[in-house]
Structure prediction request, 348 residues.
Amino acid sequence: MDLEYISLKKSQSKLEKDISSDKLINQYYSRRKSIISKNIWDYWDEIPIEFSEPMIFFALPLSLCYKAYKKESDEIYKILFKDLFKEIEISKKILSFSENWDNEGSKGYEQRTWEKKVRFLTKVFKNFYDKYGLILPTPYINPGMDGDIDIHWKTEKFEIFLSIPENDDERINYYGDNYGDIRTKGTLDIDKLDSFLTWIKLYY
Amino acid sequence: MTWSIEEILDILPDGNLSLLFYRIFDSFMKEHSPEYISPSAFKYSKEDGKMSTNWNKYSDANQIRLEGKHPSDRYGVVSLIVKEIRLNPELSKLKIEHTPKAGNQAHTDISGLPEYEAISKEDYKHLQLLLSRLAEWEINNYLK
Prediction:
């Protein structure tokens, strides 16, 4: 695990180094005319010469660097969270479960619930990594009740079990503990994950 | 033939522990993590609000597999120790009732889960987690 993590960190710093390399600046010069927005050119003559020069040499390359960095970041996340994306890929089979898939009356699963689950997991993993520099353990993804999709983290130190609801009006319900008296439970808003992530970090 | 309803004792007359066998559909099993027991698999039946199990006094693990509505090889079977369920204060609301059926003297229901409608979803998730922690695989095609 540690070796794998170190190797991922190395590939991340390599990618970051590439971003600041000449390659990117060259890319900027070859593409700048098509990328610079029309609005800037519309007002270009009004920009005092002392500002326009620095803008073209610093601000625009920086903004392009940022765009490239963002794209590269997504690539980094794909590398860092490869186990998560593998589990997500495996869980696609849930979408083939239609009504009464178990012959015991269970409901089928909708594409948008599955997509909601992917959005949630990607966000949790990214936020946790950005906040703590750590990669979350990969959770299990299971068919839940009433069209909900269940997510289950099971590690040596903690378990968290939650449902991504089919119903958009419903929030994510979760329960977790450290196999002892320290518990967490409630509902989650996908845009407010801080306390949830803090709890996981305590028992990471 | 009708069977008499018996009290489910913690220990069987032969000195072995009372076990309940529970069938798990393969959609909850993981080929890449065969030991894994999913809490999502512990759910009550929509028909009667109970979890259907077989008591080891009159059944082995394989019998409940054969009673599923899919081919038997699509199921795994876990066992739960009756005494462990009863000793867990957080599972005290669950009732274990011998409910023999025609052709199945071992049939036993775990009820109390339907209060799911009355308790919060997160508390229900807690119950499912606790049951999954008590369960052990008896039959699992992925475990060689």
Remarks:
- Chain B touches chain A through 26 residues (CB under 8 Å).
- Residues 19-139 of chain B form one domain.
- The mean pLDDT of chain B is 92.
- Strands of chain B lie at 19-25, 51-55, 75-81, 95-98, 107-111, 136-139.
